[in-house]
Amino acid sequence: MTFTLLLEQIFNGLQSGVTLFLIAAGLTLILGVMNFVFLAHGAQVMIGAYAAASLISITGNFYVAALAAIPITFLCGYVLEYLLIRHLYQRDHMDQVLATFGLILFFNELIRIGFGPAALFSNLPPSLSGFVYILPDSPYPVYRLLVIGVGLVCAAGIYYLVTRTKIGAMVRAGASNESMAAALGVNIRLLRRFIFSAGACFAGIAGIMLGPLTAVEPGMGEPLLILSLVVIIIGGLGSVHGAFIAAVVVGIVDTLGRVVLPLLLRSVMEQSAADGAGPALASMMVYLLMTVVLVFKPTGLFPAKG
Amino acid sequence: MKRIVVAILAIAAVASGAVFLLPAQNNKVKVGYMTTLSGGAGIIGKQMQNAVNLAMEHTNGKLGGKDAEVIFVDDQRKPDVAKQLANRLIKSDKVDVIAGVIWSNLLMAIHKPVTRSDTLLISSNAGPSPIAGEGCHKNFVSMSWQNDQTPEGMGKYLQDSGVKSVYLMAPNYQAGKDMLSGFKRHYTGDIVGEVYTKLGQADFQAELSALRAVKPAATFVFQPGGMGINFVKQWNQAGMNDLSKLFTVFTVDGVSLPALKDTALGVIATQTWSPDLDNAMNQKFVADYQAKHGGYPSFYAAQAYDTMMAIDYAIGKAGSADTEAMRAVLADGGIPTTRGELQMNTNQFPIQNVYLREVVLDSDGVATTKVIDTVFEDHGDAYAKDCKF
Fold first, then answer.
1. Per-residue pLDDT tens for B173-205?
2. Chain B partners of A218 at a C-beta cutoff of 8 Å?
3. I need a surface site. Which of B9, B96, B171, B230 has the fewest CB within 10 A?
4. What's B249's domain CATH number?
5. What domain range includes position B331?
C-alpha cells in the first residue's frame, strides 16, 4: 500500500470517526451524566437525515435545508424528553431499555407511515460534488472534507461548551455527582432536558451530513448506534473528549481494518480462506479494540466519574 | 360380540377420518408468502407484496380456479425468524405452498425443513448454489434464477467486449460468493481485485479509495437493496466514472432508482427481466402496477408476480394443490410469466434469457432500465448436472 493511499484511508477513517463522535457525544452525556440508557439515539440520526432530505426537496437549496434541519432535531429531542423521557429517569435500567427500544420501533414505523418504506432521494448540490487534491494524484471529495470540517467544528464547540461555559460547568458537576450538584442549586431538571436535546441535535447533524452519502431509509441509524456505544465504552462514560478520541480511533481502526486486513491475510494464507476470514475479522476489529481497552481500563480511557 | 365392537369402532374411526379429511379437501388453497417487510429491506418486501396482491387481483382471488388465501409473513431478514415462520406456516397454518424469500441465507435456512415436510417451496428471488446442485430437492422450484446465472451474463459480456481488467466487489455472504463465482465462469481476463464487504455496509469510501489506487478498466459490483443506493451514490461522488466503468447485477433496479434518479444514468447491468420486455403479460403487469402504486416495479416485484402466476398455472393444470402434482406441472416448463413462457431445467431452476440493461430516462423523465442487448439465450445454470432427485 502506497503512502497516498494510506493517507486517503486515514482521511476516510477520520471522516467516519467525526460522524461517530457527533452521535456518541450526546449519548455519552445521556448515559454518563443522566445515567439514562437511551437506545433510540439512532432514530435521532434518521430524523435529521429525513428532515434535511425533505427540506431539500421543498426549498431546493441544500445549505438552507441543512441549517433549517438543525433546530428541528433539537426540537424533536426537546419534545421527546418532555413527553416521555423525563418520566423514566427514576425507573431502573431495564425499564429504560424496554421503553427506548420501543421508541426505535415507533420511530421507524412513524417514518415508514409518513414517508413510505422506500429510501428518499438525496444528493449533493453541484457546488459540493467536486474534488480537492489532498496530495497530488489523490483527489478527495469536497463534501467528505466538509463533513470532517463540520465534525471538528462541532467537537471544538462542544469542548468549549463543556469546559469554558457555566452550562458546561453544571454538566461536568452533574457528571461527577448529580445529587451534590442539585444541592448546590443546579436545576437538574432543566439541565437534563438541555443535555438530551443537545445530544439529539448533534446526532441530527450527523444524520443531516450522512443523508447525501448514504441511503435515507427507515432504520438507517441503528448500525451507527452500536458503533457509537462502542465509542462511549472505549472513551469512558460521560467523557466528551474521551468520546472524541475513541470515535476517531474507532473510525480509523474500522476503515484500515476493512482495507488492510484482507490484504495482509492474503499474503499469509490461501486466497479463498483469506476472502472468508478477512471481512469477518475486519468487522470484529473495533470490538477487539474495545475488549483490549476494557481489560486494561475497565471504566474506559477517560471516565468522567472519578 | 367383542369383534363386532372392534369392527364398528374401526369403521367409525375410518369414517370420522374421512369426515375430517373432507373439509380439508374443500378448503381454500393456502400460500404462505415469506418476505422482508420491516427494516432497511422493507421496501423490497413491500414491492413483492404489492405484486402478489396484484396477481391475486388478476386471478380474481383464485389460484387455479380454486378459492385461495395468501398469508404474508415478515422474515425480518433473519434466518432464525425465517425458520420459525416456515414451521408455523407448515404446522399451524397448514399451507399448500411456501413462496417468496429474498435472501439466499434465509432460503438455505428453510430449504430442508420445508421440502422435507412435503410442502412445495417456490423461490421468488434467492437462488443459492448449494440447493441447485447436489443439495437439490424435488419439492423446491425457483421462479427467479440461480444466483450465478445473472452475473454469468455480465462476465460473458465483458469478456466479449474485450475488457482487460476487472475489479470485483460483493457483500460477504452466500449470494455475494455465488455472484462473483458466476462472473468468473465466463470471464477469463485479469481480476485485479476481489473484495468482500460487510452485508448491510453503508459507507464504501474506504473500498473506493483502494479501488482508485488499482485503476481497473471495469468494476463489477453486486450490492442489493439499500447497499446499492449507498454504493452508486458514493461511486459518483468519488468521481469514479472517470477512472473505471461500473457494471452491476441486482444493484440498480426499481427499488434503488427512485432514490438515485439520474445519478445512475448509464449504469449497465444484466438481468433476466426488465420493465420494457415486450410480451403481453409483462406489459399488463407493469402498466397495472404503475397505475396502482406509481413508479416502476422492480425485478423483485416481477418475480413475485410470476410466482403467484406459476402457482395459479400449476394448480389449474394439475387440478389440485397436491405437492407432487403441482411440482410435476412446473417441472414440465412452459409456465406463463412476465419473462415469456419459462422452461425449467432438471433441477427446477428456470432456463431463460439474460439481458443487458442500461439505466435511461423514460418519456416522463423517470429513471428506469431498458434492454440494450441479449447476452444469453435460453441460459441454464451450471449446477443442474449435479442435481439428482
1. 888 998 999 999 999 999 998 999 988 888 899
2. 39-40, 42
3. B9
4. 3.40.50.2300
5. 29-145+278-348
